[in-house]
Design a protein that fits this description.
The structure is a homodimer of 420-residue chains.
Chain A lengths: L6 H9 L18 E2 L12 H15 L5 H4 L2 H14 L6 E3 L3 H14 L6 E5 L4 H14 L2 E5 L9 H7 L4 E7 L11 H10 L3 E5 L18 E4 L14 E4 L1 H4 L38 H5 L1 H11 L1 H23 L5 E2 L12 E4 L3 H12 L1 E2 L1 E3 L3 E4 L8 H16 L15
Parallel strand pairs in A: 1-11, 3-4, 3-5, 5-6, 6-7
Antiparallel strand pairs in A: 2-8, 7-8, 9-10, 10-13, 12-13
Helix pairs in contact in A: 1-14, 4-11, 5-6, 12-14, 13-14
Pfam family, one (chains A, B): KYNU_C
Organism (chains A, B): Micromonospora cathayae
InterPro entries (chains A, B): Kynureninase (IPR010111), PyrdxlP-dep_Trfase (IPR015424), PyrdxlP-dep_Trfase_major (IPR015421), PyrdxlP-dep_Trfase_small (IPR015422)
């Protein structure tokens, strides 16, 4: 763009934003705090406290164990809501269950069992740690090779990178649709098609994609996916994760953790495990109902927002951030550590700086801007489009340049990375 | 005892009950409802709604991602509370994490890996379904034999039954301390010692024991245990489960689901998985914080109640129930389906009746008494000692005899078992 964007321009963007009204659906407890970490923990939906209180007082406190007649289906019902309004999947293809890590373990193991003879698992070398660790464990347990795909820290993988790495020995490829660090975005359809041609399954981690970019699992022919619900989906801290298995594959895949929620005719409690005929076979144990309850109001907003409008706004917020970073932060030693092309980027932007860890801390404590740090030297800023305004981006980067220009962060002790 | 207990006698027992005041710590929303299913879903502690609302509004809504600096330790901290006041374990031996099923899978796999060469898993033939299904899966995946121990449906296994089944090929024994159906209680110390002598691990399922009987994991030399927190521990529907690993074993065991919460120095996000040196290595993914939050006030009451006093009251409630069943229900076609000796029984009692399924339903809908049905023909009644009065037991059995004597249940359609 020409010249640096003014705050007035940001205000005008907000005034014209068709999603602006949705900010009121969230609790904004500290109006002066700029929250750019919805890609780590989404904000509290305004409807959640009362909904949760009703579930606690009425369904648990009063109706007690009788409520299981409705709770029993929640994982499935919330999965169908996600399928319809967030993931572009068909009914009966998604369930909410366990953590992302446990779901990834289940589906990765199921996929490996379905590709006997093939000995290689491919993963992005820069994949989110839990995915790499889980696959390392599965590979060691099965005597397979875990091959990492070298990946540019800023630009991420391309479809060509993945295609070139595929061969007849690859059983499974695990990739994030949106990279947790750089925000780089992969083409789900093209990668899935390339892998299918090579006879491999792709298991997508959608944690940073779900609710921020359209993933269109059905249209893209995706086979397997998992993802979390506490980032852009606003399900609350550690909210249960989802898993997706393409309908046509469900009957042929078996997951390794054979719990009673995956059993056909669960309450007959029969002598032997027989997997449910459908997506329920990927469930395991009794689900955490209070955490599931918080997902209900959180997901309700997505039908109204529309994932395409969220994507458009997310791209615009990111572009504003990149433009301001170019103008204000490059002179202060920052470099863009995300793809510059907004079509190649999810809804968060990373900036590299040698002192990023201290800057991220000072930004929170001294400037009221919450982003986070990621190794080795990244400041990650995620303007979640449901509740972030253009002026928030403008103000956040204004505060950031001021803080770094004044060297405020240099007064903080050098420390180790920890939870944000 | 001599003669059938009168309601007056039950009232006198309540008046003398040192735990009677603890009933006020729970929400009793419908005073006329007699709730004898705390062994399935414990009642709502009175302190839970406000505590949970504060976590939602303040910690999530206001403090947002910054709260992870405290949330990150909750699984460990709640584990230490359980260790001290419920399980008789040492600090650093218990964590709250995942579901009981997932925890059982993790610890069973870890134990099997630690006993290479041994080819047999032993399980009670009447073990809770999810445990049997999980072990069936592990055995099939590893080419091991899952051997079931024939078990009396009413009396459960004895130490001798287990000892006689042990041989040099047994790697792992999975048993419930208290059987989910009959309530039969096993001697944890004697079974653990017998298995250790035979070179096998015992993995205890404490779901129906934790909070109702003293399990004294340290004193009994127990190696491995899992259990749920939504029964006698009142953590709420599907509350996260616990796992216990004896301190001396932790460094030598590795579990198969290698997620980032089990990683040493988690937020360095290093290239390879290195398990944490302690009990944290048995964690996997991001825990469901709202469900964990509900456990905090639920566990607080146990320090005050004392597990020995709860056990004493649980035995007394069970004895009253058995005495009344003998007097009133045997003539109506019921038989006791639990051990008669209260020292061999946990805190619930099962009664067999050919029409138990319809009786359990009618008891809820027509008599305001909540128990539950278990296959094949069991009515299960669990008077949780924290909040159940002696008069509740008296009134419940009085309503039950009246209902069956009048044949009320016979007007209900015959149906399939389902969730209660």
């Amino acid at each position: 763009m020409n010249g640096e964007p003014s705050r007035r321009m940001a205000e005008e963007r907000d005034a014209a934003d068709p999603l602006a009204g949705l900010r009121d659906r969230f609790v904004i407890a500290e109006p002066d705090l700029i929250y750019l970490d919805g890609n780590s923990l989404g904000r509290l939906p305004a409807a959640t406290p009362d909904h949760l209180a009703r579930v606690v007082r009425q369904e648990w406190g009063t109706d007690l164990v009788r409520s299981w007649s409705t709770w029993i289906d929640w994982g499935r019902r919330l999965g169908d809501t996600l399928a319809a309004h967030v993931l572009g999947a068909r009914p009966g293809e998604v369930v909410v269950s366990d953590s992302t890590s446990v779901n990834l373990y289940k589906l990765a193991a199921a996929a490996l069992d379905a590709r006997p003879g093939r000995r290689t698992i491919l993963v992005d070398a820069e994949e989110f740690p839990t995915d790499r660790y889980l696959l390392q464990g599965l590979a060691e347990q099965r005597g397979l090779t875990l091959r990492t795909l070298p990946s540019d820290l800023d630009e991420g993988l391309t479809v060509t990178d993945v295609r070139d790495a595929l061969d007849g020995d690859v059983a499974l490829v695990v990739l994030s649709a949106v990279s947790y660090r750089s925000g780089s975005l992969l083409d789900l359809g093209a990668v899935t098609a390339a892998a299918r041609e090579a006879g491999a399954y792709v298991l997508w981690d959608l944690s940073h994609a779900a609710g921020s970019v359209p993933v269109e699992l059905a249209a893209n022919g995706v086979d397997l996916a998992v993802g979390c619900t506490y980032k852009y989906l606003n399900g609350g801290p550690g909210a249960p994760a989802f898993l997706y298995v393409r309908r046509e594959l469900q009957g042929g895949l078996r997951q390794p953790i054979q719990g009673w929620f995956g059993q056909r005719d669960q309450f007959r409690m029969g002598p032997r495990y027989e997997p449910a005929p459908d997506v329920d076979r990927f469930l395991v144990g009794t689900p955490p109902i209070l955490s599931l309850a918080a997902l209900e109001p959180a997901l309700a907003v997505f039908a109204e927002a529309g994932i395409d409008r969220l994507r458009a706004k997310g791209m615009a917020l990111g572009e504003l951030m990149v433009d301001l970073a170019d103008a204000w932060l490059t002179p202060l030693g920052f470099t863009l550590a995300s793809p510059r092309d907004p079509r190649r980027r999810g809804s968060h932007v990373s900036l590299a700086h040698p002192d990023a860890l201290r800057i991220s801390r000072a930004l929170i404590s001294e400037a009221g801007v919450v982003g986070d740090f990621r190794t080795p030297d990244r400041l990650r800023l995620g303007p979640a489009p449901l509740y972030t305004r253009f002026v928030d981006v403008w103000d956040a980067l204004d505060r950031l340049r001021d803080l770094v220009a004044r060297g405020v962060h240099e007064q903080l002790p050098v420390a180790s990375p920890r939870v944000t």
